[in-house]
């Protein structure tokens, strides 16, 4: 039974518990001090003291008395009601033998506790630094691989072009080789950083944290033993002066002897143990897959005439979860019934919030499709409104499915929060808002994406970008004369314009901007006189010409 192995992920709870233990010890010291003062006032004040320190019913303080040391303290208070006729000798003996010694012990205990938790935070900070270094090397590896792939594609393009001089082809080949070597170096650095991090993580969870928590456990057990010894001394002081109340003191001794530091330690484990396993090693992520082949010396002549490669880095690497909060991969019931009530409540609340966000996202998509349909109705040349009916029906069905799912988890959440209705009130009000409101505006959508802690987040991935057009098209769209360009833009990602009114772009392509984003998420661009349309604003980087007519300052 060791806190280092059983409570490896309960750093904050152990910090609170040890502080609570010191508070209990200081409470006992204060109790003894007041007892020495009350001794001169005899039994009446002594009984008032006992009543003062009795735990309050139905309070958090009452729950703390499940520990054996606290139970012994409670027995002491109960026995004190039978005391009478105390005098100054008792006051002097208790001051010298208990109060002074415990006050010195508390100071030593605070210093030791501070040192242990300082070491724990230092170890945590070291792991965070290692994690940042690993992420940095991984991003560098990813970037170098992309650059190597682009250099390889450029070389193959030059090699296939008969109009390019041999010197230029050789220069492109050398540049591709350099980029490829940089990618290999980054790969080796990332692999080394990954091995180092996994080693540091293993030592953190299996060496450093167990060692620190073992010291904290020993410190806490010494505190429990010391408070039990002080209670014995407390009883013996009374025994020397008042033999008549020996039976009461025997009861106090018995309560003190019933203190079991191991039992208290086990109670701490039962109260805070999560049951999760330490995280395993992080898997290696290989970014060399998009490179179809390596650069060779004879590729100058062999690859001439080959087609253009189609492989590209079309998406970003998905990051791993922070390993310190990663849970075990065992099968979990859908209603999280395997978790303690408070942990289960948090999980269910999190699930409800996620479903509400999904519902809001689907409602945003439905609203956008509806606006596009209205645009098609007003401007038939832009597209057929009937072509959007299927998509609109599909989105509506998704919303209904998500609502049913949210209601299921809200029912489980309401069951868990049966004794705490105030906690779930806000969540239930938020989830019910979808049934009573109309199509949300842009501002309300932004508010619904506000995170539970009050901070604003807007996580819209490129893969889930809703491919819809804006409703506020410029009236000049129908003019015969084309709109003038107000700037240029560079495509950050490849976009397939499948809907009418949109235009496809390729990553890295330079195009003209003829109409800015009016707040609907779409920018109107032109490739040539015959090709123009809308693309998502997040897919391009816009450079507006400040001297152009109608241009706005770009922020």
From TrEMBL:
Residues 1-264 form the F-BAR domain. It comes from the Eukaryota. One of its GO terms (biological process) is signal transduction. The keyword Cytoplasm applies. Belongs to the FNBP1 family. Residues 338-415 form the REM-1 domain. GO terms for cellular component: cell cortex; cytoskeleton; plasma membrane. Residues 294-314, 423-464 are annotated as: Disordered. This is Formin binding protein 1. PROSITE patterns: F_BAR, REM_1, SH3. Residues 447-464 have a biased composition (Basic and acidic residues). It is found in: Cell membrane; Cytoplasm, Cell cortex; Cytoplasm, Cytoskeleton. Gene3D superfamilies: 6.10.140.470, Arfaptin homology (AH) domain/BAR domain, SH3 Domains. PANTHER family: FCH AND DOUBLE SH3 DOMAINS PROTEIN, FORMIN-BINDING PROTEIN 1. Keywords: Cell membrane, Coiled coil, Cytoplasm, Cytoskeleton, Endocytosis, Lipid-binding, Membrane, Phosphoprotein, SH3 domain. Residues 345-372 form a coiled coil. GO terms for molecular function: lipid binding. InterPro entries: AH/BAR_dom_sf, F_BAR_dom, FCH_dom, FNBP1_F-BAR, HR1_rho-bd, HR1_TOCA, SH3-like_dom_sf, SH3_domain. Residues 484-545 form the SH3 domain.
């Amino acid at each position: 039974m060791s806190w280092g192995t059983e409570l490896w992920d309960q750093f904050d709870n152990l910090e609170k518990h040890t502080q609570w233990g010191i508070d209990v010890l200081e409470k006992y010291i204060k109790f003894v001090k007041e007892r020495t003062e009350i001794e001169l006032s005899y039994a009446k004040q002594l009984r008032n003291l006992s009543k003062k320190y009795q735990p309050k019913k139905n309070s958090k303080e009452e729950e703390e008395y499940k520990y054996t040391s606290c139970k012994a303290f409670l027995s002491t208070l109960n026995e004190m009601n039978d005391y009478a006729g105390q005098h100054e000798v008792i006051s002097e003996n208790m001051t010298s033998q208990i109060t002074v010694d415990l006050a010195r012990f508390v100071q030593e205990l605070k210093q030791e506790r501070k040192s242990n938790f300082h070491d724990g935070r230092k170890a945590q900070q070291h792991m965070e630094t290692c994690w940042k270094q690993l992420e940095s090397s991984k991003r560098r590896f990813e970037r170098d691989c992309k650059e190597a792939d682009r250099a390889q594609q450029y070389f193959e393009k030059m090699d296939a072009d008969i109009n390019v001089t041999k010197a230029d082809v050789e220069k492109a080949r050398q540049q591709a080789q350099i980029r490829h070597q940089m990618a290999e170096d980054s790969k080796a650095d990332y692999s080394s950083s990954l091995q180092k991090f996994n080693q540091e993580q293993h030592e953190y969870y299996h060496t450093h944290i167990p060692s620190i928590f073992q010291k904290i456990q020993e410190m806490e057990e010494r505190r429990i033993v010391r408070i039990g010894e002080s209670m014995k001394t407390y009883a013996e002081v009374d025994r020397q002066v008042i033999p008549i109340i020996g039976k009461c003191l025997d009861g106090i001794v018995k309560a003190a002897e019933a203190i079991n530091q191991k039992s208290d330690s086990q109670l701490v484990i039962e109260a805070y143990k999560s049951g999760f396993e330490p995280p395993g090693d992080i898997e290696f992520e290989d970014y060399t897959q998009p490179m179809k082949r390596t650069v060779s010396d004879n590729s100058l002549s062999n690859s001439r005439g080959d087609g253009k490669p189609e492989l590209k880095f079309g998406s970003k690497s998905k990051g791993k979860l922070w390993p310190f909060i990663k849970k075990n991969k065992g099968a979990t019931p859908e209603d999280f019934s395997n978790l303690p009530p408070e942990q289960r409540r948090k999980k269910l609340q999190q699930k409800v919030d996620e479903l509400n966000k999904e519902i809001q996202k689907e409602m945003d998509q439905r609203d956008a499709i509806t606006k596009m349909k209205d645009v098609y109705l007003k401007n038939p040349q832009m597209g057929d409104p009937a072509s959007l009916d299927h998509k609109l029906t599909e989105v509506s069905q998704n919303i209904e499915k998500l609502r049913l799912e949210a209601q299921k988890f809200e029912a489980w959440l309401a069951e868990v929060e049966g004794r705490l209705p105030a906690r779930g009130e806000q969540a239930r009000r938020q989830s019910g808002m979808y049934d009573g409101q109309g199509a949300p505006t842009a501002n309300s959508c932004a508010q619904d994406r506000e995170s539970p802690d009050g901070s604003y987040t807007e996580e819209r991935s490129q893969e889930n970008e809703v491919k819809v057009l804006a409703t506020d098209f410029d009236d000049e769209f129908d003019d015969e004369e084309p709109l003038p360009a107000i700037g240029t833009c560079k495509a950050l990602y490849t976009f397939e314009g499948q809907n009418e009114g949109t235009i496809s772009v390729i990553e890295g392509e330079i195009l003209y901007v003829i109409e800015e984003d009016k707040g609907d998420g779409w920018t109107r661009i032109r490739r040539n006189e015959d090709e123009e349309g809308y693309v998502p604003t997040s897919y391009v980087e816009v450079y507006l010409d400040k001297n152009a007519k109608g241009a706005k300052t770009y922020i």
